[in-house]
Amino acid sequence: MSKTISIIGSGFSSLSASCYLAKAGYNVTIFEKNNTVGGRARQLKKDGFTFDIGPSWYWMPDIFEKFFNDFGKSTSDYYQLDKLSPAYKIFFSDEVITIGDHMDQICEEFERIEKGSSVPLRKFIAQAQDHYDIAINKVVLKPGLSPFELVTKETVTRVDRFFKTISSEVRKKFKNPKLISTLEFPVLFLGAKPNQTPSFYSFMNYADFGLGTWHPKGGMYEIIKGMSALAKSLGVTIKTNSNVEKINVSNGKAASIIVNGEVIKSDIILSGADYHHSETLLDESYRQYSESYWDKRTFAPSSLLFYVGFNKKLKNIEHHNLFFDTNFEVHAENIYDNPKWPDNPLFYVNFPSVTDTSMAPDGCETGFFLIPIAPGLEDTPELRQQYFDIIISRFEVRTQQGVQDNILFKESFCVKDFIDDYNSYKGNAYGMANTLMQTAFLRPKLKSKKVDSLYFTGQLTVPGPGVPPSLISGKLVAELIDKNEQ
Ligand SMILES: Cc1cc2nc3c(=O)[nH]c(=O)nc-3n(C[C@H](O)[C@H](O)[C@H](O)COP(=O)(O)OP(=O)(O)OC[C@H]3O[C@@H](n4cnc5c(N)ncnc54)[C@H](O)[C@@H]3O)c2cc1C
Fold this sequence. Notes:
Helices cover about 35% and strands about 20% of the residues.
């Protein structure tokens, strides 16, 4: 008889783990509280418009490909992937920088802004590629059990890069503040400020300029659909509208979960829900991390999001658009050091319908607006509207067009929704940040130290926030379970 595994949640990490575990012969069931799978990567469809509710940047295509290859499949068996050209646009107060889809174009753009800057840029990206190869092939595939996992001949000779920050590296090589912001942007995906992120993480710059920005036709939810289809084909049962209320422990071992009032026995329990919430499903004596532990961690930001249907095609925009036309340092302070609503927020806007006509009705545009904010901030309808008014007016100025009379509808999502919909700690959007002190073995563990046969996966454990790390997290925990529980 194969062992049974109950998985809590159906985000990328849970779906990934479910596939590896089913392939290894376990009897796997996923329990998802919401009515659809995908977690933070769910989809909103309204009046012919299609929105990805969460992730929209498809970076590191190699990791998605490797995931499907592990099952004898390819991404192309599930979705069509297109490389975006240009990759994205950054609006500054007096200039726009366009990031092309290969290094020669990007170098030309850097030269336009700062003469001679393409030379250090090529060197910086070559080093970033070196970091990427080490990170992805040597470091990230480790389960975070011991500090020695980080000690390889490649990391030992580059140890200084764990103690310098990305911010200091970039500032040494570039003087123009716009180029500095451009090069600091990718590490924001790791959830912390660039001046607290080790320079080794410049592998994100290689992901950006070296590997490019991609789009699955139909949106990011196509990946979730592909992974769910793969999971089902491997024998995984997926149950939606299935809220897990409790994890029961018997003789120090995970024994069952309570789902909508029903006890479901299981040999192994794996939670892909937010780690903090997962532990609150246990009696207090079985929790590994205290409330003060969580409170002291650096969490990645929450977000105020708007999903907007426009009744016309917009001009001067690309698929991905960053509005860095205000002071990032002040905004970052309001996220990390002195949490409060920012006066002049930076924001990001995604218009997938610019390159993918399937995302909006003819002659219309699908717009996703995101303002990163500190987790745990007050969230009211008035504040949401106030910030929409701020960013939509700036959007109109920067892109030189009126759009407010062309809004068919707008939906919003913020701290309260992250908590209600995903049981997210303080309403975080991207989990726990990857700072030096929250990397690898210093992150919450994949396996419970207090309860046997209880495991965790997802963006609060290893390797960290983002869709590619979530796929890897699922693989790492599946390997650990198979090693421990066979
Ligand atoms: C707005 C936003 C933008 C982002 N942009 C990007 C991007 O562009 N590129 C990128 O790579 N990454 C991006 N990310 C990050 C990425 O989406 C996440 O890292 C990833 O989706 C996390 O997956 P996960 O499996 O860890 O968790 P989740 O997706 O949160 O899945 C956890 C699941 O557990 C369920 N759950 C919780 N409690 C229970 C319970 N008691 N019972 C049953 N089920 C439960 C939840 O409903 C949820 O479905 C973004 C995230 C957000 C929110």
